[in-house]
Amino acid sequence: MTLGRIVTKLNLIAGEWLAGETEIENRNPSDLSDLVGMFAQASADQLEATLDQARVAQAEWAAYGPERKQAVLMNIGNELMSRAEELGTLLAREEGKPLAEGKGEVYRAGQFFTYYAAECLRQIGENADSVRPGVEIDVRREAVGVVAIISPWNFPTATASWKIAPALCYGNAVVWKPANITPASAVALTEIIERQDIPKGLFSLVMGSGRSIGQRLVESPKVNAISFTGSVPVGKGIASAAIQNLTKVQMEMGSKNALAVMDDADLDLAVTLALGGAFGGTGQKCTASSRLVVHAGVHDAFVEKLVAGAQAMKVGHALEDGVQMGPVVSEQQLSENLTYVDLGKSEGAELACGGQRLEMPHDGFYMSPGVFLNTNNDMRINREEMFAPLTSVIKVGSYDEALSVVNATNFGLTSGIVTQSLARATHFRRNARTGVVTVNLPTAGTDYHVPFGGRGDSSYGPREQGKAAAEFYTTVKTAYISAGTPV
């Protein structure tokens, strides 16, 4: 289907590229005159058709030998890595993160697939003797079935890949609903997967709104498991819908991550970690350092360096050289960010720098990185996830107070400490109530071969990534075997 000279990108429905009932446009947040493309919106009937075909394809895929699956995932991963510049440019263009971050994300997505390609060959079960004589026990993991994947816009290729790769590795079919803000990256990844040696309909792309396609997907009895990354309210709605069918659920949701800076910290390192953690990806990361808990002994010196660093950051078009922070992803997100700026001021916080919409040569959703001072942990800007290039400094008088502030949140995804004390570092990583803890590293940035997830309102269900992914994407079968009496 075409609109003028723009070709509408289609959905992959039951193994066929099909137009939808409507289309949406996708524009570059760095330059609103740049139309990235038009993208089809799937219909309810198309979703039902793809779910039906997915069940057929999954049975066929589960019967593939491990080397055949391994080759498929390895091919996907290698193509992503080899095309990291091309696809990273597309990602940066539609999402707004700087080009270097876009290329890095695509390359990392490829690594997810190559990691799980290797895991295809490492699916080894267990065996045991029964308490009953003459009986042996075989324990192994089997595919859970049809997996619905609902992924966010902030890491449109990486987050989707760390869900899709293990789902396929362990023998499942995938029905993927990506965020409508970043459909171009979704189509690009789907094109790579669809070309592989897989059964027709094993992998499907159903672009559409959360209220229509997303809601119907999570309510479907044809879905065996749902992996979701997004907001807490949406996550709770998914869980409520899924429980009606007893559908398995895995969710990564909100966060309010803290970086604690102690009085013995290397201040230059601490500031570098804070700037990268708070403003990398325009602050649109679930692992962003949105609370900076700083010891009174270094508070003033840290703040001086932090504000200077924030003011010096180059904000601009995602594809321009030297840009450190691109635009916010959308007009709605920018409006919400500016509302939080006003809220922080009304709560008594001091806006030391930034937090303003910027006028740039290109019409886009630009905002300067903002730093709040004189804040406390009871303020809403320190309780709610803003998903913005905004961070708050909270002054504390001791390590014990810092740890208490770090843990005083409903969320529990990541936390970090900057210190030269082994004792403090050890105590912090043992007592910080988050799923991920960092020492002298930013709160943002995790590896693909180890578990990822949080506590409290941040996560629900089994962990993602690494070998831990098997817990969600498989189900355990225990078999008892009696060989009878030997002759």
Automatic annotation (TrEMBL):
One of its GO terms (molecular function) is aldehyde dehydrogenase [NAD(P)+] activity. It holds the Pfam family Aldedh. Residues 18-478 form the Aldehyde dehydrogenase domain. CDD domains: ALDH_KGSADH-YcbD. It comes from the Bacteria. InterPro entries: Ald_DH/histidinol_DH, Ald_DH_C, Ald_DH_N, Aldehyde_DH_dom. Its EC number is 1.2.1.5. Keywords: Oxidoreductase. The keyword Oxidoreductase applies. The keyword Lipid biosynthesis does not apply. PANTHER family: ALDEHYDE DEHYDROGENASE-RELATED. Belongs to the aldehyde dehydrogenase family. This is Aldehyde dehydrogenase, thermostable. It comes from Ruegeria atlantica.
